[in-house]
Please model this.
Amino acid sequence: MGLAGVLVLGTVAWLQFDPDALLPIEHIEVAGNPQHADVAAVRELARAHAPGFVGAELERLRDVLEAQAWIDAVSLRRQWPDTLVVEIREPVPVAQWGADHLVDRHGRLFGPVDLTEWDGLPALAGTDGRQVVLMHRYLEVSARLADAGLEVVGLEEGARHDWTIHLADGVRVLMGRDSDRSRLGQLVRAVPAIRGYREAPVERIDLRYPHGLAVAWADTADDGAGNAR
Model:
């Protein structure tokens, strides 16, 4: 009976024992030199999921942190006696996506973010899930049109997969639903004639014709209502 009493008391004491109260996490160290990640939010999430050295929910914390906008991957480790080290690897943006997202080097979307400081990246727009297709298309189109001295700054794809090329000088090249980039050869060959035909800036080039293309110029004069003709 004495032994049974000791076991019962031991069990009760064990159930009431809180290791996190005895060994709390006092310090959250954020490593990896993050430039854009919200370090304050990282610390707050870490404290919520890792109150103690023993009971820290590291797997759950990793999932929560990697769902944040500027975090690509996270490495977590306990450092005796009271520190949790959170090492952050940020994504590497390669393109803008829509109004407030970026595409990383793995083709994944992340955001929302402020795109102001990313104006130098190509601007892509389309249905989520098409970013890898459009990124490859952008690279192909940029290389092809560079032969004619045309700089591609973005691509836009509609819901029906009709797509438009945006050039640095503001010209839009309409491609329709045809994904055959060989038709861009027509444009490359026609660029000298287009440039020499009129002094007015080109507004739009339409390649949706099976045998040829159409060009729309924007006159410097307006129609009296402030609209360029």
Helices lie at 2-16, 19-22, 39-49, 58-66, 131-145, 184-197. The longest helix spans residues 2-16. Residues 5-15, 224-229 have pLDDT under 50 and may be disordered.
